[in-house]
Write a structure and sequence with these properties.
Layout lengths: L11 E8 L10 H14 L5 E9 L2 E8 L2 H23 L11 E5 L5 H9 L1 H4 L14 H4 L10 H7 L3 H9 L16
Antiparallel strand pairs: 1-3, 1-4, 2-3
Helix pairs in contact: 1-2
């Protein structure tokens, strides 16, 4: 794949996203999601980024990350997806590409958008009609944000700094907010 036209910057927040080629799925079963998350933890992204929010969907993923080593982050993403997709292809007896391009990355320059972007990411399964309640989707860190689970994948320091309490986030995500403020930070095709 070609080099990124706009390089990732050190010490910046990014909305990271990618969608698979039409007709493909990134996850076929709960086991695939669990394998993905286990592999993500094993590869240890902590040296290159702090994971703030994430949501895994059948055909795409979203991360909000704070990147501390852009080159290492890109290398780890490439290694991670090569490993995950190879195992997915092997288990499903398939081959071929999943993504047309590298992951998309939009820098978040204003801290005021970070909390709203977390909500946008966590609301994906509800907006897609996959669940009736956000609490029913275990493949994001929404349950961690509202205090119903305590996984080790995400950066709790961000939560303490910007949100403070689980009830604050629960109330915020269920309140109305203006998506138009986020337009520069989200992607047209999701």
């Amino acid at each position: 794949m070609p080099r990124r036209s706009i390089p990732l910057l050190n010490n910046h927040y990014y909305h990271i996203f990618n969608r698979v080629i039409q007709g493909r799925k990134l996850f076929h079963s709960n086991d695939d999601y669990i394998h993905y998350l286990t592999l993500f933890k094993e590869i240890d992204f902590s040296l290159c980024c702090r994971l703030i929010a994430y949501c895994l969907m059948p055909n795409h993923y979203h991360y909000l990350v704070h990147i501390v080593d852009p080159k290492l982050f890109s290398k780890k993403m490439m290694f991670f997806f090569n490993k995950y997709l190879k195992s997915l292809n092997t288990s499903r007896h398939e081959s071929g590409r999943y993504f047309v391009n590298r992951f998309k990355a939009k820098v978040i320059e204003k801290e005021q958008y970070l909390l709203k972007l977390c909500c946008y990411i966590h609301l994906n399964p509800l907006k897609a009609g996959l669940v009736q309640s956000l609490e029913d989707w275990p493949f994001s860190n929404y349950l961690d944000f509202i205090g119903r689970r305590n996984l080790e994948l995400w950066d709790k320091r961000f939560f303490e700094k910007f949100i403070g309490s689980h009830s604050n986030y629960h109330g915020f995500i269920h309140s109305l907010w203006d998506k138009s403020e986020l337009e520069p930070y989200i992607f047209d095709d999701d």
